[in-house]
Amino acid sequence: MIIDRAQKYLEKIEKSDLNAFIEVKPERVLKEAQELEKNEALKNKPLYGKIIGVKSNINVEGYTISCASKTLSNYVGTYDATVVKKLRSQGALIIGMTNMDEFASGSSGETSYYGATKNPAALDRIPGGSSSGSASAVAGDLCDMTLGSDTGGSIRNPASHCGVVGFKPSYGVVSRQGLCDLSMSLDQIGPLAKNAEDALLLTNAIKGKDISETTSLATPKFNKNTEEVKNYKVGVVKEFMDVTDDKIRNNIEKGIQALEDIGCEIVELNYNYTDIALPTYYLINYVEFFSATRKYDGRRYGYQIEEACGEEVLRRILIGKTISEQEFSGKYYKKALQARRTMKAEMIKLFDKVDIIAGPTVPKLPHKLGEEISPMDMYAYDVLTVPTNLCGICAGVVRCGDINGVPVGLQFQGAPLGDEKVLNTMIEFENRF
After folding, report:
1. pTM assigned to the model
2. Which sequence positions are flagged as catalytic?
3. SS3 state of residue 301
4. Is the dihedral of CA 34, 38, 42, 47 positive or negative?
């Protein structure tokens, strides 16, 4: 029964020291579970009875939508985001709001106002970010699956570090209505799950055209068809492998060999813009984040963001403000947009040669919790994930072994709207590896 499963998860969350959830409302969850069990109209829906955590930057009515920041610590959601409405219409039960890096600004899960999230797969190491709580909750078996958001790798990075499945849909496949944006032209909501089939299930549930969100697209259902995967051409980008730690690269090469054993043809590729990915991404990110944060002025709700936020958020605001000034806007932001167009054009050309690109997710293992690293070292976690967002393509991560107990994720990238191919490759790889 749903109510029994909900009670079990609530008890596990209460006892957990992972700090994966910011807010859970047990009485509300159990009441909604009881109502769900009585709702005959939902019993045949794909997500019926699935218990789902939601990242704390996605609006859920009646929950604190804090973005893990003191700035919004007293802001209670007044409506359900489109993705949350879709979850409910498919019979899902929301169990609570997951922890994250403050305003999604981070790659470690340590910048939350509510404290760092722990990694269930490697308790002494960071879980990755910014969807740290969403990944940790799935890895720690505190719910069935979760929603995260991905601006430059924020679903895939923690999925890799925590050893779970994460999927970033093509830009526009999932409505962003109700998401507190970090960078509007890069953000995308997506699933984190215990296996790739659940990621497919959850993606189908939340995707689709939304008349209230102009970037959203109408797409057909993504079907499971793993038989086709053995005929895929799988690209391996030399530059992605070159910037990756040797131990991680060895794991990834074993994963690629498994694809070849399935019957895939492996094709070596070159992508000559890896070195400009991070500066291009962060210039765009800073400016769009600065713009997005102007509404957090403390007059209508919450606190003024500059007075309440943490160091990394303030850094992005101040840099974004500087770049946005008239004398710099053309010199930096517009140049970054030009670089982005070039990167996307070259990336699209690669998919004329292959069906899928396979490679590492992050170039190094997660650092120890509490270990001080520089902002640039933190940003370096994203070098292999930001091209996906800059180019508007799709990408997913599945576990590909571990190094001394620390999970390693294999990333699959697909062409714009090539989501079905990526999801099927993830499913088939899980079945074979």
Report:
1. 0.97
2. 55, 130, 154
3. coil
4. positive
